[in-house]
Amino acid sequence: MDTVLETVLPAHPYYPTTLALPHYVANTLTFQQALGVLGAAILVIGTGATVLLSRRPQLSACERIVFIWFLVSGSIHLFLEGYFVLNHRTLAGDQGILGQLWKEYSHSDSRYLSSDTFVLLMEAVTAIIDGPLCYLAAFAIYQNSPFRHVVQLSVSIAQLYGDLLYYTTTLFEGFPHCNPHPFYFWFYFVFMNAVWIVIPFSLAWQSGKYLTSAVARIQALESRKKAH
């Protein structure tokens, strides 16, 4: 009887329950510990960013927040998401800290454990392109560079586009890869990803307005020159 049950019941806690993960190994970290590790890493990056910002007193409060956002976001893209891209085949059995973070998050989206083609390609683009662009945007803010808003607009649109595709691909399927528990669905899947919609949209809007205003000023100046 036990043998029959073992062949019927899933050997993992993910959805859909029919998902085959023969190399799955349960986490040794609790979800509180996993979230604590992620929070601690973000705190370290934020603290380092604050130290750097102490050398730039001329930056506004808004610029400082955006600088920290790009450093944190770039680090997540490059290191956490890059880790997934490099280790997606063995992630279900990975007992490293980053591997366990991904297994914890995968309660909200098991595609990360099954080497889903879309998720793999989307995360590869995010790690290779969005990550470095976030660092470049942070550098541009720090240096008060004239190319700041071009980079900020570019990376924000890339983040927004990728996240919308990520949401909609599973939305049209009826969320079969997500654990229906409210914590996993609303906090992990909806809230944690919505951050990369709300903030990039706001920053893209800010940069779009700035660049439009700059072009309008140049056009007005050229018109006055032609009039004379």
From TrEMBL:
GO cellular component annotations of the record: endoplasmic reticulum; membrane
Chain ranges of the EXPERA domain: 62-204
Parts of the chain that traverse the membrane: 31-53, 65-86, 118-142, 149-168, 183-205
Main location as per UniProt: membrane
Membrane topology: Multi-pass membrane protein
Pfam family, one: EBP
Superkingdom, natural source: Eukaryota
GO molecular function: C-8 sterol isomerase activity; cholestenol delta-isomerase activity; steroid Delta-isomerase activity
InterPro entries, A to Z: EBP (IPR007905), EXPERA (IPR033118)
GO biological-process terms attached to the record: sterol biosynthetic process
Keywords: Isomerase, Lipid biosynthesis, Lipid metabolism, Membrane, Steroid biosynthesis, Steroid metabolism, Sterol biosynthesis, Sterol metabolism, Transmembrane, Transmembrane helix
Location within or outside the cell: Membrane
Family the UniProt entry places it in: Belongs to the EBP family.
The name this protein goes by in its record: EXPERA domain-containing protein
